[in-house]
Every structure is written in C-alpha cells, then in structure tokens.
Specification:
This protein is an alpha+beta fold and 271 residues long. 37% of the residues lie in helices and 17% in strands. The longest helix is centred in the C-terminal third of the chain and has 14 residues.
C-alpha cells in the first residue's frame, strides 16, 4: 500500500486528498480500482473520488473512468487517444483515429474510433464522441512506449481497416488521401492481415487502390499476384457512394474513371 506524506496542510483529510490528486496525475486515465490501491477500502476510494470531483480536480469520463483536471489549464490531463485505450481491456484506436495518431490525416475529427473485443456504449466527453468498432483480433496493434497507455494499429493494419470499412467510416476520398501519404509499406504484414480477414472484396479493393494511387515502397509484383489469386469471380462496385466510374477487368470492379480522385472536396485529374 502506498503511503502519503502527512505534513500539516489545512486538515489531515485535505492533505491526503491533495497528495492523492498529485499521485493520480501520473496516470492519464484511471478507475476506482486504481484509486483503491491507495486505500485498500473501496468505499473510502469512492468517497475520495467524489470529494475530488466536487473540487473540480477530477473529471468523470464515463462509468468508472476518470482523469485529473490540470490546475494550469483547467482541461483534462488525458487526451482522446489515452482515453480511448482505457475504455475496455482490449481497446485500441483504429481507422481514421489511427490515421490521425500516425500523422497521416490533414483533418481534425471529433469521432474517436475504438476497436474492442468487448462492446461499449457510444459516449461523449470533452467534445469528442467515442465510437465502438467490433474486433476479434489484436494483430497489428502496437503499444506505444511512454505514451500513457496508447495502443494503436500499425500503418498496414490502419490501411486495411480503412479500406475494409470504407463505406461505414472513412469514405473513398479519405482512404485515397491516406494511401498517397504513406511512403513505405511492409508487404509481409499486409499479406498476413489480409489472410486473417479472409475477405475477397478486401483483396480486390486493396490491390486496386494501391496499384492506382500508391507510390509507397515495399510492394512487389508478387503482392498483386497474391491478391489476384484471392479475388474470386465476383464483380463489385468499389464503393456504394461512387456516382461515376468504369469497369476494371483486372480487379473485377467498377472504379472511379481513370485516376480521378477527390481530396478536400476538389476533383483532380492526374496526367
């Protein structure tokens, strides 16, 4: 059990609570069970949390999830990435939230996408909405050192997740912009993740988009051949939101005409 410095300051309880506040500031996000490490009495821990919240030193994020409030800025200590990764034991940031974390998005989003094996209800905190995405795997998830507990999909998994859920979350415009920002891809990882997803349509979309829009190093002809071997015989539209396009016989999809793509609302034709 951790002990607090008990030098006089107003009252004994006040000393203990302020020392608790300073200890909790070392953890961006914490639970009642974390606070109980200092008390070994869950009711005492809950009472201490209530008193600190009443003093606006701690903010409740959602049920049994808290963060300290900075005395300097008046803002929560935890950022949206740290909060997302403490929602459940298996939680990690993914999709365009992972793109933002990797610095590969030129937009600020107020939806935070959290992949988790355990379902949670969507909620809002400090201007951000935390959205649940079901996952059955932890493959391709990195634990970032000295980040306050951030877990995030690597670039290759982030790419595939955004392509897979293009019609649900990202949209083709955002996916293409992301692809164009990536400078290097690990072919072995891409093949591993594609194999785990066992999704013919994902092979089709990924191969077409990378072949058409990517200038990233690390991909060989063998990668595209592997994709061709897994696309099956189905003909599909690359996205349900596409209003103009032509049929690509190689990848068996209706795709945007030529190299036309949308970025930030502007249409551009590559030479």
């Amino acid at each position: 059990m951790k002990q607090f410095n008990s030098k006089p300051f107003y009252t004994k309880n006040k000393v203990i609570e302020m020392n608790l506040y300073y200890e909790l500031m070392k953890e961006p996000v914490f639970t009642t069970e974390d606070v109980n490490e200092y008390y070994k009495n869950i009711e005492s821990a809950r009472s201490a949390l209530k008193r600190l919240m009443k003093q606006n030193l701690i903010a409740k994020i959602r049920k049994n999830l808290y963060t300290c409030i900075s005395g300097e800025t008046g803002a929560p200590i935890a950022n949206r990435f740290q909060i997302a990764c403490r929602i459940t034991k298996s939680a990690y940031i993914s999709h365009h939230t992972a793109m933002e974390y990797h610095g590969m998005s030129d937009q600020v989003y107020y939806d935070v996408y959290v992949s988790s094996e355990t379902r949670f209800q969507e909620f809002e905190f400090d201007g951000y909405t935390y959205k649940y995405v079901h996952t059955k795997t932890q493959t391709g998830v990195e634990s970032v050192q000295y980040s306050g507990g951030i877990r995030v999909t690597d670039v290759e998994k982030t790419l595939l997740d955004n392509i897979k859920d293009m019609d649900k979350i990202s949209g083709i415009e955002e996916v293409i912009a992301f692809i164009q920002s990536v400078r290097k891809l690990n072919e072995q990882k891409l093949c591993q993740y594609l194999k785990e997803y066992q999704n013919q349509f994902l092979y089709q979309k990924t191969a077409y988009l990378l072949e058409m829009y990517s200038s990233a190093s690390g991909l060989s002809d063998k990668f595209y051949q592997t994709c061709r071997e897994h696309i099956g015989k189905s003909n599909r539209y690359i996205t349900k939101d596409m209003y103009d396009g032509s049929y690509d016989a190689k990848w068996k999809m209706v795709v945007p005409d030529s190299k036309t793509y949308l970025k930030n609302g502007e249409t551009r034709e590559d030479d």
